[in-house]
Amino acid sequence: MHHTPQRVAVLADSQNLYHSAQDNFNKNVDYNALLDTAVANRNLTRAIAYVITTNNGQAEPFFEALEQIGFERKKKPIKTFPDGTKKADWDVGISLDAVTLANHVDTIVLASGDGDFSRLCSHLRQKGVRVEIMSFKSTTASELISSADEHTNLGANPERYLVD
pTM for this one? Predict the structure, then answer.
């Protein structure tokens, strides 16, 4: 249930969205459409995109576009381990921000399909915060969907939520 006076925070797990959009459609997420749907004529309190930086700087235009759309960007460098494996995730950062924002908003829209957030969703709902998930259903953990109040399947409307 969306009510105009609701205060909304949108937290976008950019790595998760990128890989899901690429794996499913070989396209990129339209963050303008995502934010528009997430806010849905409610009062936007914060929109944060959690991004990973690389040494080559290729993603800078994307980061600038996020800011122009209205997202605050939180950056973290990719970690490369001695064996060559790489790790880049924002799970703890997103969770901490969601718990902190819970006292200031009515709804948190989490744009991610990562099942690690299911416990976070349950916690937020117990605190009286409405939780909405935006993700690609085919790459979203079922426990995440069931832990939220609402799920928007970005893959059901690719012409709206994806760009080349």
Answer: 0.93
